């Protein structure tokens, strides 16, 4: 279960803190490239 969501590196990274103590880091560019909807997905990303 997600416990925390924190912006890091001047907003370039989001850090998700999980109940088990694990921290996942996602770079903003990766998030945009992997967005599920066309409005937020990077225009150059292969949509599958």
What is the average per-residue confidence, as pLDDT, rounded to a whole number? 87
Class by SSE composition: mainly beta
Helix amount: 10-25%
The proportion of strand residues reads 35-45%
The span between the termini is 29 Å
Dominant shape: elongated
Radius of gyration: 13 Å
Largest sheet: 3 strands, antiparallel
Provide the spatial order of strands within the biggest beta sheet: 1-2-3
| Tally of helical segments | 1
Low confidence ranges: none
Write the H/E string, N to C. Answer: EEEH
- Total beta strand runs: 3
Q: What does this protein look like?
A:
This protein has 48 residues and is mainly β. The protein has a domain at 2-33. 12% of the residues lie in helices and 38% in strands. The chain contains one helix and three strands, in the order βββα. The chain has a three-stranded antiparallel beta sheet with strand order 1-2-3. The chain is elongated. It starts with a strand and ends in a 15-residue tail after the last helix. 0% of the residues are buried. The mean pLDDT is 87.
Record keyword descriptors for this entry:
48 residues; mainly beta; three-stranded antiparallel beta sheet; 1 helix
Could you provide a short overview of the structure?
The chain is mainly beta and 48 residues long.
List the helices and strands and how they pair.
Elements lengths: L1 E7 L4 E6 L4 E5 H6 L15
Antiparallel strand pairs: 1-2, 2-3
